[in-house]
Design goal:
Strand content: under 5%
Low-confidence stretches: 96-104, 106-120
Oligomer: single chain
Radius of gyration: 19 Å
Number of strands: 0
Order of helices and strands: HHHHHHHHHH
Mean pLDDT: 78
Number of helices: 10
Structural class: mainly alpha
Largest sheet: none
Helix content: over 70%
Shape: elongated
Distance between the termini: 47 Å
């Protein structure tokens, strides 16, 4: 088992393809928390997220057993692609989607990249509230915009990786991010929110 813990995700996937079930157990323990966090962030429903999580791993197992995985790319990106497709299928079955009107430009990057300053208890509380407000506003974004924000700012994925995982062009990914930032700026303005860290 110690040998497995030293292997990369891609090597573990190929070990499982060759019949080593322990390799899959190790892979599951490494990826399940991040994958579930990604799914719940997009769908905002524990029960739905559990179903999509299970569906994702069933599809992953099936694809691995049918030797449809190639270790040329990152296993985690491949897994997120499967989850993305399962989420899209779920959304297609839904009758309605939330829509937010476009507004003026907004730059979330400066908020995400800065560390909280430990200058005072008040600053820490104020910063925590700002980050909480931003996360709450993200919930109101349309699903494709919410997804690109999650991948970019919470999973540190490049726009090239986002485009590959979501199956769209880099320009579409950039456009979704732009509209997400516009929507967040509008929501902040409509709700009189100050989004500057202390």
């Amino acid at each position: 088992m110690n040998r497995l813990s030293q292997m990369t995700d891609e090597e573990l996937a190929m070990e499982y393809v060759e019949g080593n079930n322990r390799a899959f157990d190790e892979l599951l323990s490494r990826t399940q928390t991040g994958l579930f966090s990604y799914i719940i962030f997009i769908v905002h429903n524990q029960e739905v997220a559990n179903d999509i999580f299970q569906e994702t791993f069933l599809k992953a197992i099936t694809n691995l057993q049918m030797r449809r995985y190639s270790p040329t790319g990152k296993f985690n990106a491949w897994l997120i692609r499967i989850a993305h497709n399962a989420i899209m299928d779920w959304y297609r079955r839904q009758k309605s989607k939330q829509i937010v009107d476009l507004g003026s430009d907004f730059d979330i990057a400066s908020m995400s990249d800065r560390e909280l300053m430990e200058t005072s208890r008040e600053d820490l509380l104020a910063n925590a509230q700002v980050l909480s407000d931003v996360k709450a506003m993200i919930d109101f974004l349309p699903e494709p915009q919410r997804e690109v924000v999650m991948m970019r700012y919470y999973r540190n994925m490049s726009f090239k990786e986002i485009a590959k995982v979501t199956g769209v062009s880099i320009n579409t990914s950039l456009g979704r991010m732009r509209y997400a930032l516009i929507n967040l700026r509008r929501l902040a303005k409509e709700n009189n929110m100050q989004l500057e860290l202390a």
